[in-house]
Amino acid sequence: MKTLTALFTASIIAMTASLAHARDLGPDEALRLRDAGNIVSFEKLNAIALAKHPGAKVTETELEEEYGKYVYQVELRDPQGIEWDLELDAASGQVLKDHQDT
């Protein structure tokens, strides 16, 4: 029982720590950052993500600030119905993560 309690407590602490360092940005703030040149246009970020999975469609996007950096998260569905999660550096367009959604 002590082990289960310790694991549960550790998972709650880990989730809380990760939430404290990520902040969702609303549409107005995202547009302001784009217009100021702090992040790449959403069209370009989507094009970069879609180039990784030709024929896929964007199903969801989100812009977050994580540890002082802007991260653009994109969910795609390819022609075979496989879902992909990508994270891009919103300032440069560099792909940070690209993995199949499980």
Automatic annotation (TrEMBL):
Keyword Signal part of the UniProt annotation: yes
Record flagged with keyword Transcription regulation: no
Record's protein name: Peptidase
Highest taxon above the source species: Bacteria
Species for this entry: Pseudomonas frederiksbergensis
Organism taxonomic ancestry: Bacteria, Pseudomonadati, Pseudomonadota, Gammaproteobacteria, Pseudomonadales
Keywords: Signal
PepSY domain: residues covered: 40-98
Signal peptide range: 1-22
InterPro entries: PepSY
